[in-house]
Design goal:
The complex is a heterotetramer.
Chain A: E1 14-15, H1 22-30, H2 42-46, H3 48-52, H4 57-66, H5 69-76, H6 84-88, H7 95-108
Helix pairs in contact in A: 1-7, 4-5
Chain B: H1 8-31, H2 34-44, H3 47-61, H4 64-69, H5 71-98, H6 106-110, H7 112-115, H8 123-151, H9 166-193, H10 200-208, H11 213-234, H12 242-254, H13 265-273, H14 279-283, H15 285-288, H16 297-305, H17 311-315, H18 322-326, H19 333-341, E1 388-391, H20 394-397, H21 400-413, E2 417-419, H22 430-434, H23 438-455, E3 459-462, H24 465-474, E4 480-483, H25 484-494, E5 505-509, H26 522-531, E6 533-535, H27 558-572, E7 579-582, H28 585-592, E8 598-601, H29 602-609, H30 613-631
Parallel strand pairs in B: 1-2, 1-3, 3-4, 5-6, 5-7, 7-8
Chain D: H1 3-12, E1 22-25, H2 30-33, H3 36-48, E2 53-55, H4 64-68, H5 74-91, E3 95-98, H6 101-116, H7 118-132, E4 141-142, H8 145-151, H9 153-158, E5 174-178, H10 181-184, H11 200-207, E6 211-213, H12 227-230, H13 235-249, E7 256-259, H14 263-279, E8 292-294, H15 295-302, H16 320-326, H17 348-352
Parallel strand pairs in D: 1-2, 1-3, 3-4, 5-6, 5-7, 7-8
The chains are: A mainly alpha, B mainly alpha, C alpha/beta, D alpha/beta.
């Protein structure tokens, strides 16, 4: 507000209970391997997009699971779906399908513009 | 006795289906693009028409392709289709010759015996009756096979049979009833009048010996008429629509119409032409290795016809192309599947006749893209000018030995080349296309194309069949695109590569995208024969298996991928080869984890066999200097 | 005349050692401060990673020690401990003196007292419980909140009292991670509708089949694993718990409400062990457990000749390791008594 | 909530607080924020409790505000503190009582540092000697002023005119206690009740008839945070901090907030106004804010001091709702009058100390 010269900052805290985790549920239902991620970061390390930008598939997974969807949307489209991540994943997570499903979920949802 | 009310169901059915088919064909025709309409018009007055008639006879009636793949299944289809055709054909002639007058209404031919019960006692009439009984027996033999297939599919040599919906079940029952009811109707009539040939006569007299044949005949004629009528009326909403649709399909195909990247009349006709024979199910590795039995083309076609949500089915496929190779109707299954994968591109969603054809087709207008680029973060680079570009591809970077081997081979070949993605490149775009995201893929294609053009290269070599296929099909680069097996072959032929013969027993696994996908079969074999003892396997060339790792399948779990890889590797290594060779980094990576046998890319084997001349020269020098030393 | 060995503590290690010593022909006195033998085995319902009933192990140990050569003195503590020449004199709280040729110390561990981590509110907030209390709920087949309701969201905090300088425990208790995973699965089995969240610093699934259990928890039961140490718990007006944790993998602090918080209490040197150390002069290490003569090849040997260690009085161990360690102690005793008259 | 559990913890964290002869040092900012509070402390100590409280006219800031604001190095802060101790030593006192929580934290920190690193203490002594010629003794007892009030909470209760009870319903007032971060978070053993469940204010409130509200964000900073507030660009964080606390306590419907730190009441009070201005949101009942008090003000109120005499008119969030609930008599018209005839005969003391 003009009169004070500052505004109330947004809390960085993830508010798990009030976040919308429907995107995560959509993926859990269709790609059970989504549960298997142990956040090793192998996918992010091999990622072509990750070499050029701050895109991290590992972080994306966790943000979807926590319902931090706005941050996910920004990054989702950067994925090239090349599939290197699948080959390096030690837990057999179908990472490409998760990206595709996330895109689908956002498209189907009315609350997000992708 | 020229008419009886029992023929009414048949008449209704027949005229309905005739009208429907004509009507449907007109709609299909109108749905074609202008060039396709012209193709069809030209074809009608040209060679295509004759060719189509021949193909219809061979495929729609005789079912030659099914006979080749599976003789019992072929016989089943043939006996029903060809037998029925013969029955109508000779029945019409019979009615024409022996009837009261010429040019009879169709029902007179179909129910000839009812209207001419005294007919066929002796001479030519009896001989003709014998022919008609023979044809009926032919059909009934196929029918017995069909019924057994429904209850126990192994009878016809099939592992899986297709699942049916309710309208299909009713149509199937009426189809099954047609010929037995005709047999019984004719038999009772024959029994009453004491005529009939070996089948109807014998059965008729036997039945008449303990049943009131005269009273029994009429209900069966009515049943016969009802079954025919029901079958015809239900035809448009069942898989039996494939009977008329296939005729139209054959004609369209012969006129040169192809499946595009959007759905339209041709894809619609193709979907209706699927008879759910189930040959694709048998060919599918997801079925016999991974135990997934609901995503095969027969089910996809059915789901599309039923307007079901097909995304799960469409995305759960290796796109290995084995089914395309096997489909007896020649439906372009993989292109149709790809159409279903394209997001927001399903503007031609099928509408079924019973849901009201006059309802307007669903036009899902794809959302206008906001023009924002997805990959605008990619750096612009200026590559040096070279003759040959080597693009290893993403997957090759995860199998570094292929990359290193290729560098060795390229160095040895002496061509002026540049390893364009040595520091990691940008994806070729095919994985995006496989996920139905063509717009995004186009961005990557443009990016890579710019890069290739700037280098001024005339040849682009890649190690990855996935990249190779997309470079060939979707890049329009205007330069020669080679898979490394092709490049190695050309270098061998030019004499730039010298190799030892390794004497190792090798079996070659054809990668799907290289083989069935791009038609490259001979070059890898040529190279392998050049350096090793290449053995044959049951799954060579067109019949090759998928490794299971295919990027085309977006749904398959890692465990099931592994199952497929294990089965494929086990099949290929039955002859205990020393090396299981392949020509794809992804195949190599997938198969390596599933077998104890060494899995190697062609490039690795070639690099192993390579005689590097520069090293040889050095050795020569040393030897000569030793000689010199000895001389001193 | 057979030699006399005193085993102090009748938990897993003590029972195993006593049983084996007796089989080897020694006369054994087994001292236990509690009335019942079996130690922590009595508090645990099912064991990781195979989720077998703990009573099966107890049954095995009881059978092993059901022997005339073993005198079990339960409800007994030691007041004095001294060595005279090659003999040990042990005076119990009842004033009896026991003379022994060798002593096996198997005083085991105590669970970390969770109230010391004040920020989690154990003993203050109604539905903050320990792993041991949860085992009790499993045994009674009733997982419920104080008000009797079924918890819908349950948090499990790893590393309570372990790897924590603030409570003076620098070491890892090694078994809490797998216990957490086992208990998470058991909660899911009991309450399929409830959600379980594990808050961990590292998943240390070192033992055989531990990692597979972890995978099962994720894959089959949908247990959520959040990497970060819970920093504090509070209570809402609805009697739910609010926890704060950094989701270190998202790089953001996280707040969520839970119905129940289970604290994975670590293992500490037992109070009984501390007392023995005090009266006997046995050495203890920085982690306050008994320190063995050599960590590689002398893990049963103490600084007093003739006194040997068995089990978790030296370091956190699982049952498999404890039993092996106890057997090793027996072999050390036999070696020692061969040379002593 | 298991009260026994809390009592067990409280019993573990008890500290020694001197009985008499206090050397009192003021906060540098409190007199601007809530000028009545320190005066009320002295008045209660001297008049009600009859204690010897000495204030040295030459005492300065402890420099803790600069230290925590990253502008004063620790050695400087130590020397300033050493001078304060020297004043105490010279005046013949040993019981040091700071009014400010940050001061208390700084003194505690410095004493602990000197305890572990005597050479630092030696250096500081040398510096102080060089600079001022003064020498000092380590205080015999260090207690925050709120500790002292806590110690005498029962005596105050005995002389109280009012209780923290809703006079209409007879129910105890629901009070949120907010402890300054520097009170016990750095050295839990130096605070009454420790850092997690501090008892210092709870003890007073319970003794005076109120009921403490335990809400999830009770540990959270008030939002002052020094750098957060002192740099204007960071003030958004400061408000956000307070807002999180208000949102967390709101469901408990507290009647008032009691604090023991110079900054906390300031921010908990003023930010309620700012949040209301920015977002139109109030956290109290009946469309009011939640009144915020210092512990001295609360002690003064229960002892029957005039609200305007205690400086409650300086609060931005109106305190009248609480006064009404307790039934404290006040003259609304006098709230902003400069020349007030106070009911207390010794009112001149308030200004002249």
């Amino acid at each position: 507000m003009e009169k004070f010269g500052f505004t109330i900052s947004k809390i960085r805290q993830i508010d798990y209970d009030s976040n919308d985790r429907s995107i995560a549920d959509y993926i859990y239902e269709r790609e059970p391997s989504f549960r298997l991620c142990i956040e090793c970061g192998g996918c992010s390390a091999t990622c072509t997009t990750g070499n050029y930008t701050n895109f991290s598939l590992r972080e994306l997974h966790i943000l979807i699971k926590r319902g931090e969807n706005s941050q996910v949307i920004e990054n989702l489209k950067k994925c090239m779906l090349c599939g290197k991540c699948i080959l390096v994943c030690p837990r057999g997570v179908n990472t490409r399908n998760i990206v595709i499903l996330a895109r689908q979920a956002f498209q189907k949802s009315d609350s997000y513009a992708i | 006795m020229q008419f009886d009310p029992f023929v009414i169901p048949f008449n209704i059915g027949l005229y309905f289906i005739l009208f429907y088919v004509v009507f449907r064909c007109v709609i299909w025709f109108r749905g074609l693009s202008r060039p396709d309409k012209l193709r069809l018009q030209r074809g009608f007055f040209g060679n295509a028409f004759v060719l189509s008639l021949k193909e219809i006879f061979l495929e729609s009636l005789l079912h030659k392709k099914i006979l080749k793949t599976n003789i019992r299944l072929g016989y089943m289809h043939m006996s029903l289709a060809f037998g029925w055709f013969l029955l109508i054909f000779f029945g019409t002639i019979e009615a024409d010759i022996f009837g009261t007058k010429h040019l009879n209404a169709p029902y007179k031919a179909i129910f000839f015996r009812y209207f001419n019960p005294e007919h066929g006692r002796m001479g030519f009439e009896a001989a003709y009756g014998f022919l008609m009984d023979l044809i009926l027996a032919f059909i009934l033999s196929g029918l017995i096979l069909a019924i057994s297939k429904r209850f126990y599919s192994r009878v016809v040599g099939m592992k899986k049979t297709t699942k049916l919906k309710l309208s299909d079940k009713i149509a199937l029952t009426s189809l099954w009833l047609i010929f037995p009811s005709r047999l019984l109707a004719e038999s009772f009539t024959s029994g009453t009048y004491g005529n009939g040939s070996f089948l109807t006569g014998t059965l008729g007299s036997w039945l008449a010996s303990f049943l009131p044949a005269q009273q029994m005949a009429y209900p069966f004629w009515l049943l016969y008429s009802l079954s025919l009528g029901t079958f015809f009326v239900l035809l448009p909403v069942t898989r039996y629509m494939h009977i008329p649709a296939e005729l139209f399909l054959i004609f369209m195909r012969n006129c040169g119409i192809k499946t595009g990247d959007k759905s339209g009349t041709y894809t619609e006709v193709q979907t209706y032409s699927c008879s759910s024979c189930g040959i694709c199910i048998d060919a599918c590795q997801l079925n016999f290795s991974a135990g997934i039995t609901n995503i095969q083309p027969a089910y996809l076609m059915k789901a599309i016809r039923n307007n079901d949500d097909v995304s799960e089915i469409a995305n759960n496929c290796l796109l290995c192309g084995r089914c395309d190779q096997k489909c007896p109707v020649g439906i372009e299954l993989s292109p149709i599947r790809m159409i279903q994968r394209r997001v927001g591109d399903n503007e031609n969603v099928f509408t079924n006749i019973y849901k009201g054809y006059f309802r307007k087709r669903l036009h899902n207008i794809p959302e206008k893209s906001n023009g924002q680029l997805s990959y605008n973060f990619l750096p612009v680079t200026d590559p040096e000018k070279v003759d040959v570009l080597y693009f290893a591809g993403c997957m090759t970077h995860l199998t570094p030995s292929i990359k290193n081997s290729m560098v060795k081979i390229l160095d040895a070949s002496g061509v002026k080349y540049k390893f364009i993605d040595e520091q990691g490149g940008v994806c070729c775009g095919r994985p995006l296309m496989l996920a139905g995201m063509d717009k995004e893929a186009r961005e990557l294609i443009n990016y890579n194309s710019q890069l290739f053009w700037k280098s001024g290269a005339h040849t682009l070599v890649t190690s990855c069949p996935i990249c190779y296929k997309v470079f060939k099909e979707s890049y329009y680069l205007g330069v020669e695109v080679l898979h490394h097996s092709q490049f190695i072959k050309s270098q061998i032929e030019e004499g730039s590569l010298k190799m030892n013969f390794l004497r190792k027993k090798v079996v070659y696994h054809t990668p799907c995208d290289l083989g069935r996908g791009s038609g490259v079969y001979d070059e890898p074999r040529f190279v392998l024969k050049h350096v090793s003892r290449l053995e044959k396997s049951k799954f060579d060339d067109e019949n090759s298996l998928c490794c299971g790792g295919s990027l085309a399948n977006l749904k398959l779990s890692s465990g099931k991928k592994y199952k497929i890889a294990q089965d494929t590797a086990a099949e290929l290594t039955k002859g205990n080869p020393e090396i299981l060779a392949t020509a794809c980094p992804l195949c190599k990576k997938t198969l390596s984890s599933a077998t104890e046998t060494r899995v190697a890319d062609i490039s690795e084997i070639v690099a192993e066999a390579l005689i590097v001349t520069s090293v040889k020269r050095n050795i020569n020098k040393q030897v000569s200097s030793i000689r010199e030393l000895a001389n001193i | 005349m057979s030699k006399h060995v005193v085993v102090i503590g009748a938990g897993v290690a003590g029972l195993e050692a006593a049983g084996r010593l007796s089989k080897a022909g020694f006369y054994v006195s087994l001292l236990e401060k509690e009335v019942k033998t079996g130690g922590h085995l009595n508090d645990w319902y099912k064991l990781f990673p195979d989720r077998r009933n703990s009573s099966e192990v107890k049954h095995y140990l009881d059978k092993l020690t059901l022997n005339d050569g073993i005198k079990i003195l339960s409800g007994t503590t030691i007041e004095k401990f001294s060595k005279r020449k090659s003999h040990f004199s042990i005076i119990t709280d009842k004033g009896n003196e026991i003379i022994a040729d060798a002593v096996v110390v198997a005083t085991g561990f105590d669970l970390f007292k969770s109230a010391r981590k004040e920020e989690y509110g154990y003993g203050i907030y109604d539905n903050v419980i320990t792993s041991a209390e949860l085992e009790g709920m499993f045994r009674n087949d009733k997982i419920a909140l104080c008000n009797g309701k079924i918890p819908g969201a349950i948090g499990i905090v790893h590393c309570v009292g372990s790897r924590d300088e603030k409570v003076g425990n620098l070491y890892c208790s090694k078994l809490c991670c797998v216990t957490a995973v086992k208990q998470a699965i058991e909660i899911c089995e009991h309450l399929p509708e409830s959600k379980v969240f594990c808050f961990y610093m590292d998943m240390r699934m070192g033992g055989a089949h531990y990692e597979e259990l972890y995978r099962e928890a994720q894959e089959k039961w949908g247990v959520n694993f959040i990497r970060g140490k819970v920093s504090e718990a509070g209570e809402t007006i609805n009697n739910r718990l609010v926890i704060k944790v950094e989701d270190t993998l998202a790089g953001r602090p996280l707040k969520m409400e839970l119905d129940m918080l289970v604290l994975m209490a670590g293992m500490e040197m037992s109070d009984g062990g501390k007392k023995i150390a005090g009266i006997s002069g046995l050495n203890t290490g920085e982690n306050r457990f008994f320190s063995a003569a050599d960590p590689h090849y002398g893990s049963n040997i103490s600084n007093i000749k003739g006194v040997f260690y068995a089990g978790t009085c030296t370091a956190p161990m699982n049952i498999t390791e404890t039993i092996s360690h106890a057997r090793a102690a027996v072999s050390e005793v036999m070696d020692y008594l061969k040379d002593v008259n | 909530m298991i009260t026994e559990g809390k009592k067990a913890i409280w019993s573990e964290y008890q500290k020694e607080i001197a009985d008499d002869k206090f050397f009192y040092v003021r906060s540098c900012i409190r007199q601007n924020f809530f000028p009545g509070s320190e005066v009320a402390f002295l008045r209660i100590m001297r008049d009600v409790l009859k204690k010897d409280v000495y204030e040295h006219p030459c005492h300065t800031t402890c420099s803790g505000i600069g230290y925590h604001g990253d502008v004063v190095p620790v050695e400087t802060a130590m020397t300033v503190v050493a001078r304060q101790f020297a004043l105490m030593t010279e005046a013949g006192y040993t019981n040091y009582v700071p009014s400010c929580i940050t001061s208390f934290g700084l003194y505690t920190e410095i004493l602990d540092t000197w305890h572990h690193f005597p050479e630092v203490e030696g250096k500081v002594r040398e510096q102080l000697k060089k600079a001022t010629g003064r020498e000092f003794k380590i205080p015999g007892n260090l207690a925050h002023a709120s500790d002292v009030i806590y110690k005498f909470r029962k005596e105050i209760a005995a002389k109280a005119k009012y209780k923290l009870v809703n006079k209409n319903t007879g129910e105890p007032l629901k009070v949120v206690d907010h402890i300054g971060c520097h009170y016990a978070k750095m050295f839990p053993s130096k605070g009454v009740g420790g850092a997690e469940y501090p008892y210092v204010l709870t003890g007073m409130v319970e003794e005076w008839g109120g009921q403490i509200v335990d809400y999830p964000e009770r540990r959270h900073c008030c939002g002052f945070g020094f750098r957060q507030y002192l740099v204007q660009a960071n003030r958004g964080f400061s408000v956000a901090c307070s807002k999180e606390k208000f949102e967390s306590m709101e469901p408990f419907k507290p009647d008032m907030i009691i604090t023991n730190c110079p900054g906390c009441p300031m921010f908990l009070d003023r930010w309620q106004y700012v949040i209301n201005e920015m977002e139109g949101k109030k956290y109290g009942q009946n469309g009011e804010g939640i009144p915020v008090f210092t512990y001295e003000e609360v002690a003064g109120l229960v002892l029957g001091y005039d609200p305007w005499d205690l400086g409650l008119q300086m609060h931005q969030t109106d305190c009248e709702p609480v006064l009404d609930k307790i039934g404290i008599e006040y003259a609304p018209a006098d709230k902003y009058k400069l020349d007030v005839k106070t009911p207390s005969s010794k009112s001149h003391n308030l200004i002249s100390v």
